[in-house]
Fold High-affinity zinc uptake system ATP-binding protein ZnuC.
Amino acid sequence: MGGSIIVCKDVCVAYGRQEVLHNVNLEIPRGAFLPFIGCNGSGKTTLLRAILGLVPLRRGLIETPFDRAPAGYVPQHKVIDPLYPVSVRQIVEMGLYPRRRRFRRLDEEQRNASAAALEQLGLAEHAKKNFRELSGGMKQKTLIARALVSGSEVIVMDEPTSELDEQSENEVLSHLVELNAQRGITVLMVHHNRELVERFTHTMCRIQRGNAEIVSTGKGGGDNA
Ligand SMILES: Nc1ncnc2c1ncn2[C@@H]1O[C@H](COP(=O)(O)OP(=O)(O)OP(=O)(O)O)[C@@H](O)[C@H]1O
């Protein structure tokens, strides 16, 4: 795939008779920091889920590296509301599953990675708490920490900061930009606040009228896609 890590070719996705994405052709460069922007209902989440292989394509093809290593996925936190008590630390450690031998205890490196992610997101003191007892913002941070420990080369997030206060949102976005710049991790995320993301990058994936294209706004912080 050359310099591209994900390639969409003539992708069409529909729910029943409603065609949400028509003939999307997209090449996402390796190492991109790429917010998905567009109005409500334009198909941002659908495209993200299609890239993850979570919704079937009516036509077309999406090439990804996820058969070798799954993406670190941060869903909208409402998607996860465990019936059984699961601690914040246990949720974060789930991110290690792809690298962990079944039923084996975590090794020291894995325990350190989990502790570092909890620390980075300011969750260390809440590690033993029950996930379902957390506030919305803390749940989001827990799911971001889970994606960080996964060691994936692509992190995919659906509105990862929608319930964070302004300071936490800036911190989390800065952290993701840093991760992208230092480790070359490709970051894809649906985000509603275009003005805010423009402070971090000037390259975005715009979704409108069923099509998607990578656009440059010509301003902002990053220069990585
Ligand atoms: N599981 C589903 N079944 C049927 N229709 C769906 C489903 N998921 C999404 N849709 C429809 O597909 C369209 C695109 O939805 P999608 O959630 O991808 O948009 P979005 O751009 O992420 O929206 P928002 O900004 O409001 O989160 C909408 O009209 C929505 O109603």
Summary: The longest strand covers residues 4-15. Residues 78-151 form one domain. The beta strands are 4-15, 18-29, 33-37, 59-63, 72-74, 154-158, 186-190, 203-208, 211-216.
